[in-house]
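Q: Could you write out the predicted structure for this multi-component system? I'm mainly interested in how the pieces pack against one another.
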Amino acid sequence: MATLFQGVGAVTPFSASTSLHSNKLHLPPRKSLSLSESRGAIFVHRSDARLNLKPATPKQDLLIPNAIATKGDTSTPTKSGHELLLFEALREGLEEEMERDPRVCVMGEDVGHYGGSYKVTKGLAEKYGDLRVLDTPIAENSFTGMGIGAAMTGLRPIVEGMNMGFLLLAFNQISNNCGMLHYTSGGQFTIPIVIRGPGGVGRQLGAEHSQRLESYFQSIPGIQMVACSTPYNAKGLMKAAIRSENPVILFEHVLLYNLKERIPDEEYVLSLEEAEMVRPGEHVTILTYSRMRYHVMQAAKTLVNKGYDPEVIDIRSLKPFDLYTIGRSVKKTHRVLIVEECMRTGGIGASLTAAITENFHDYLDAPIVCLSSQDVPTPYAGTLEEWTVVQPAQIVTAVEQLCQ
Amino acid sequence: MSLSATKFVHPITTPPTSRSSDKPLFSTFFGSNHTKLRFNKPIVAAQRRSSSAASTSFSPVVAVSSDVVKEKKLKSASNLLITKEEGLVLYEDMILGRFFEDMCAQMYYRGKMFGFVHLYNGQEAVSTGFIKLLKKEDYVVSTYRDHVHALSKGVPAREVMSELFGKATGCCRGQGGSMHMFSKEYNLLGGFAFIGEGIPVATGAAFSSKYRREVLKEPGADEVTLAFFGDGTCNNGQFYECLNMAALWKLPIVFVVENNLWAIGMSHLRATSDPQIWKKGPAFGMPGVHVDGMDVLKVREVAKEAIERARRGEGPTLVECETYRFRGHSLADPDELRDPAEKAHYAGRDPITAFKKYLFDNKLASEQELKAIDKKIDELLDDAVEFADESPLPPRSQLLENVFADPKGFGIGADGKYRCEDPKFTQGTAHV
């Protein structure tokens, strides 16, 4: 799995990440993160390099850096760093945060003694104890609610859904309490919870284990949703999500856990609201996230050979959308293709199409094309499953049609 | 189970069949028209150690008969359950709860508050009995019937009334309303509109307590959480899931069931296979206690034991309080379904009247002292209403505040700046 995606053309996740490393930023620690002050600076990696940063003011009590993005330096490779798989990157991020702040705890099914069904929490229970890495009974609604209650009273829990689909059982708590409680309490209680888990279509896992919940959760006010796709952004987003005062849902993908990449040794935190420029280009903007990023990059290889120059952006932040990165790209290429794994109806692509049309209509030379999964429960049979999900060949065809 | 065999249309009209060991409890408990409207023998708590759940073993936690006066005669003057000061505190709290709810009804019908308002009249003994034993740091989690829980916990009447009026000075800045009372200062964790929703949150608060004590090693981290909910909630999955987790991890929580026999128009008997909720505690490995919820002193005795148990780290307790709401489910409920005889029966057991009698009979307070308290509360409420009336409505600029703790969550706009930096955000006119 790892090697397959490693070998995708000239543009790999590798180069995307190297472009970001060279722009390390030294930011004053946030006032609320008192623990970090003793440990030195946090490197917040952003896709831009401009240092127009407003330091945290006591009044605001948060850091709002200027979000103007510039192209990263693609030529500087990482000198050091260590290679690991995506689930190990998630674990590293998690462990670093648990080390840093004793209030960070994990709860979920089989996260403790079993080490996590995808090994993301392997070894943590031995290190931090059974209360900090809590094996819960199979009661998603209640232990998610428990996480929310714990978050309200001072802890920073990470709730793991063994499979994202199981979080449908926790929808009540996620929607009513996670999303809305900060508002209905008039701002008195914060819910710094992270809800994470693998979703997406796997290899013949069947309909119920192949769900994409990002479309169901996107309407909930008060939450943020991010999707990781590389070991680099997995670790960065995990850390950012844990440090965020907002409730964050981190979508991982079942098929991406074994991706291998070299990531920096130094500590880094990514921005939750930003999109990632995977491959700059001129002809068409391809917006994607999670696993579809790899199908897109595979298609990009073919497209490059055919003479096209696609710009690929991994939107990463599913809610809210990074309209700046997306907008800049649309203004440059005037053509948009959205490739996602979500269902066609009411999916992330549908929202993104609406957002782009609303904001950048004048810049479009062609209607936005959105390639999503079919509105079909994922079949078990391999061939059928393949046809429900967007394949690279379809992406190539769509780009060719769009660029006519 | 014999119950299911009978045609059980309505608890009031059909004399219930009962299981042998629970006869007196059952026949009088559910507001039936039986002539004998009293318990004949005490109902004892089930112990974790005993194998059978029913009345075989006695424990320090005993739910006694509903007759306060009879109870009083059994004790000598020096063996009273409360002191005068405590008595006055309890009385004042119950009066505050009752008068406040009456004022709410008035204000609602005058068009000062809208939506769903659920009043607590009749159940004051439960709130006062439990919450007045808590420290400020202890947590209370409630349901939509939360005004009195908020008041008992210490949230000023002004703030609660303002919140009900939807004013910016409300405890939740007018953003929560009747069903979402929160207070960080007084550790009231809500206020939940869906039943059962608050129980996991309460479990989380208790978990937090345990975590702080055992992982963070904070000295004195022994906060107890009380979760209040009704009989209808006891058929909900979240209730059982949390009973399991709380008992499993010995969380410092007390589950308080305010069994007022009715979930809007659904009688508890028609909805529940085994209506004796307290028995469900031992099934999960915690004591289950039944107490007369119309008697504040009995509730207080049970609450003392349950809260101390939790504080010592011995785990959760399930306390079922038999109580009754004098008004309908909400102010929109015409309350036509409940039998007037049942209502009259419980009106005769008004906790405030009963407690007043207790205070007089035991010479703990005089008529004047209680009247002075009544007057004080009246004035407090008049002030609260006036404060709420004069408070400003939330301005437009408040619309987008508090959606996110970190407003960066609104994302990055097309111009490259975070959307929360847009001045329209602080004005409340931006579109998100």
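A: Regarding packing and overall arrangement: DSSP finds 16 helices and nine strands in chain B.
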